[in-house]
Each structure stands twice: as C-alpha cells, then as structure tokens.
Amino acid sequence: MTAAADPSTLAHAAPNRGAGLLGLLGLSVALLAVAGLALGPVTLSPAAVLAALAGQGEPMAEAIVLHIRAPRVLLGLGVGAGLALAGMALQGVLRNPLADPGLIGVSAGAALGAVGVIVLGGWFMGGVPAPLRPWIMPAAAFGGASLVTAFVFGLARRGGAVSVPTLILAGVAVNAIAGAGVGAMIYVSDDQQLRDLTFWSMGSLGAAAWAPATLAAVCIAAAGVGLARMARALDLFQLGERAAFHAGLDVERAKRRVALGAALAVGAGTAVAGPIGFVGLVAPHLARLVVGPAHRLALPAAALLGAGLLLAADLGVRLAVPPAEPPIGLATSLIGGPFFLWLLLARMERGDA
Amino acid sequence: MPEAQKLEARRLHLRRAGRPVLCGVDVAVAPGRLLAVCGPNGAGKSSLLAALAGDLRPETGAALIDGAPVAALGARALARLRAVLEQAPGLSAAFTVETLVRLGADAVPESPVEPARLVAEALDAVGMSAFAARRADRLSGGERARAHLARVLAQLRAGEAAGGGRYLLLDEPTASLDLAHQVTVMRAARSAADGGAGVLCVLHDLNLAAAFADDVALLDEGRVVAAGAPEQVLTAPALTALYRAPIAVERHPGGALRIAPDLAPRRRSAA
User: Do A10 and B134 make contact, defined as CB atoms within 8 angstroms?
Assistant: First the structure.
C-alpha cells in the first residue's frame, strides 16, 4: 500500500467541515444539558423542564430544575470544559499527548490548596471580609495548581519535549508530595471536616449550588477565553521551543499565559467539584480524532467534548443506583484509567513513549 | 548606513555549559550573498548560527542584524527580519504538510500576501506541492527536511512582503538528503540569495559549498581560520590542516571544484 492511498495520512477536517463538527458537538452538549435537567430520581419531560426554566412550571418541578439540577449542569459544563482545555494546553506546551492535569499533579496541587482552606480556614476566615470568603478556596486551589504547572513547565527545557517517563515520574513525585500534604491536613482535621474532605476528594458535582457553580464557571470562562487565544502559540510549540521562537513566538511569555489559564481552569473546578481525573486526557484525545490536531479547532472541540463527557458521566452516576449517587470522580477514573493505559501501551508499541 | 546592512558576528565570544565554543568570531553576510560556514564537527558552526538567530546570547562581542543587536529585538521583530531552519527539525503533532508550512507563512502577521499563496509557492520551490495534504509527521527524512524548508521559505517571503525577510539561516539543510534533493535544497537557498536575501548556510559538504556559495568561512575550534571566495578558501593545504586528514581539491574542466578525502585505495583488488 502506498502512503498516498492510506486515508489516515490525508488532510484532517477542512475549515468548513471543522465548523460543522463543532456545531454538532455543541448540539450534543446542549442535548446532554437538557437531559441533565430532566433526568434523575424524579423524571421530568422536556416540556416540563422548559416550562420550569421559563418560570411557568409546577413549583415542585421548578424547585428541582432551578435549584438542584441547573447549578449542577452549569458546574458540570464548566468543570468538564475547563479540565479539557487545561489538558490540551498542557499537552501542547509539553509536546506530549499524555499530559493530564491529574496525572502530572496539577489537580493534586489544586487539591492541597483547597484542602488547606477546608481544614485551616477556621483560623483565618474570620479576618477575611465576608464578600471575599467564597473566593478563598478557589484562590488557594489556583495557587497550588500554579505552583505545580510552573514546576512541570520547568522540566520542558528549551528545545526539548518532555518524555513520557519524565512526565509520569514527575507526576508521581508531585502527587506523592501533595498527597502527604493532604494527609497532614486530614490528620489535624476534626470529624465534620473529615467527612467534608472525604466526599470532596472523590470528586462530585452533587454539592453544586448557584454561588459556587457560578464562581467556578466565571473563572473557567475567563481561563477559556485566555487559552482560546493561545491556539497559534500551541501550534508553534509542536515545532519545539527553539523553532517556535524562530517563527516569532515569545516562548516564555506564552508558557506563562498557558500556565496561568490551565491553573485557573483546574484550580476553580477542583475547588468546587473536587479532583476529577482523566477528562483532561480523554477529551483532547477525542478532539484531535474528530477535528484534527490544529489547535484553532481542537481547543473548542476539546472544551465541548470535556463538558459533554462530564455531563454524561454525571448522568451515569445519578441514574446508576438511584437515589444513591456514587462520586463522579470514580466514574471518570474508571473509564479514563484504562483509556490511559491503552494510549500508553499503544505508544510503547510504536516505540515513542 | 549602507555598511550596517548585513547580518554580522563581531568579536563574538560564546560559552555553552561552561566551555568556550566561539572565541572572537567575525563573520558577516550581506543581502544577496550566500555564505557557507564549514568546518569539522564541534567547530562551533551551529553555535554561531544560534547566536546570529537570537537563540544564544553572546558572552562578549555582538550579533548584529542590520546594525541592531539581535539580543535586543523581540521574537516577532526577528521573525519578520530572518527565518531559521534548525538542524533536524521536528514536529510533535499530526499536522498536514500544508498546516506545517502555514506556520511559517503566519509568522509575519503584517505580511500583505495571502498566506495560502505563500504556502503554495514555498511548497513548489522545494518540489513538495504533491505532499500538501499528507501528514507531516509521517514523511520520510528527506521529505520532512524539505517540508520544513518550505515552512522557512514561506516565513522569509512573508517577511519580505512586510519590508523585512532579509536573512535566511540554514543549519545543515542537506543532511539526510539524497544527492538530487541536496541540489534541490541548495538551489532553493541560492534563489533566496538571488532574490535579495542574505543566506548563511552551515554545510558539511564542501562540494556543495564550492558550487553554491559566494563566500566560505572555515571554522575550527571556535575561530574563523579562513574566509573569502570558495576558490581561495577551499585549498588542499588549508583543508588538510583543518580536518587533520589528507584532502584533495581538483578543478574540473568546467571550472567546478571537486573536494574529497585523498584516499589510497584500501579495497582488495578483484584479481
């Protein structure tokens, strides 16, 4: 078989086809969002959902849709899109498609920041003006995520891609250090904090109320806008940092911006929903399969796929054993773990791991 | 100042990992000229190119582009003035050849020329038009080298259209290419110079240097040991001393230089 006859060597989506595919993905996410509002222990018809959204439904349906399910769907959209965008951005800078915010420890850094606030917050929250209090936990998570991202980018020395072994071993080390920090926090926490921590640390959208969901969505939207503007920079990083500089990219500034956006998206999502693994690995991978590797299309596609995946996973855990609700982080890890292993083994077989 | 119109290393000293790699190098390439930089492995050729490209900061001395210190210009400004082809360029994504070359065309956003046209012309110049839709990470070594050269040529042309595009730096562009493609690549470099760009080309193949360069600079242990027209610089005694091995230089009837290691036959004869 000649190389030219192999369809996999041919061009990926043409621009018009790309826009069409993004439209389809957007439509799927919208349908999943409606399903997220309609399905659960109490099943509502789409008409009832729309009526409730318009403020003309039955009081019971309105309460379920507007106060329980809508913030949860908003949080799912934000966290899924944020993790996917962060994953794609990290993979772009590190030139390694196996970089995932969870695997390389960015989520763990965010978790340590958030846990620190849950456990130690009682000491200093009193001194913080009331309007600022909801921001303390996301800010701490952002700080933790930033530290880890800066460390990992430091591994990507000029001109060099970060090899998979380096990446994974760095992730092991960072996860161990952050895990020890979280362990120390658990050790000094009281019973109520312990219970909060345990459920939070498995990752869940269940705690969603309007205030935290909106806060996370705003932060993630800001990060998303920032990262969307980095599409060309992420393309150039694929040439290596030196060649990217030759083509006019201020490499260090671009890395700082990507780190900032990724840390903000992961930090805000983790603070509210807990660490949710593998969305940042699976969604970018699927996005590249669907629209090709150029970031102008792949970034928005990854955001939509991440949002869709998380909404689907949330529906899955809500409908699995009602009315119980297994944490969504368990579901994403159950699907994402084997997916990661499969990717790793496929790369090792090709000899480029 | 007309004398400032060049890409120039002036008394350039450079250290890498604590070891001096360039010791007071003076080299200059003017627009319209093709300068070949030759010398043994480890002579400092790639370091010189990296300093002129703005990758490495000189310890003392200066790398100047049209009179301005390279280190003082930002990535965007440099991308408009010069294009660089690294040794063994790589790509970590499954981009098509067209997307890859487009990265060069888009490197100068203020260029008035349609990027698609720059891409098509650059692919044509290296004989890769038929490969536009192919995946750039699955090409053979020779195809990959030419695809990256097309990317760099597209950037040079975009810069030219925006009032820059003055210098082209190529680090061993013919390594890993077969004989025919070596000539394709050197013709592309030559036509860039004929089109008005100053081309600095690190070359191992002295025959290519003799055939295509206006000037040759010989580097040895971080110093320029000879510079000038190929016929004056590429002599048997100078090359024998430089490479510490006997080198023969012949002039063919057509006028071209033929340079090769002076080997006594070592093969057992057929008889």
Answer: yes
Q: What is the pLDDT of residues A274-331, one digit of tens each?
A: 888 889 999 999 999 999 999 999 999 999 999 999 999 999 888 887 777 788 888 8
| B78 contacts A248? CB cut-off 8 A | yes
- Do residues A277 and A102 lie in contact, with contact meaning Cβ atoms separated by under 8 Å? yes
B129 by DSSP, 3-state: which?
helix
d(CA A230, CA B120): 26
Task: Please give the residue of chain A at the shortest CA–CA distance from B98.
Answer: A11
Q: Please judge whether B80 and A248 are an interchain contact, meaning their C-beta atoms are less than 8 angstroms apart.
A: yes
Torsion of CA B42, B46, B50, B56, to 10 degrees: -10
Helix ranges, chain B (H): 45-53, 75-81, 97-105, 115-125, 141-161, 179-194, 206-212, 230-233, 236-243
Complex prediction ipTM: 0.93
The torsion angle over the Cα atoms of residues A244, A246, A248 and A250, rounded to 10 degrees, is 60
- Per residue in A54-95, pLDDT tens? 888 888 888 888 988 999 999 999 999 999 999 999 999 888
Class of CATH domain A30-350? mainly alpha
CA distance A62 to A313: 24
Q: Which of A93, A239, A297 should be substituted to probe chain B, the one whose Cβ sees the most B Cβ atoms within 10 Å? A: A239
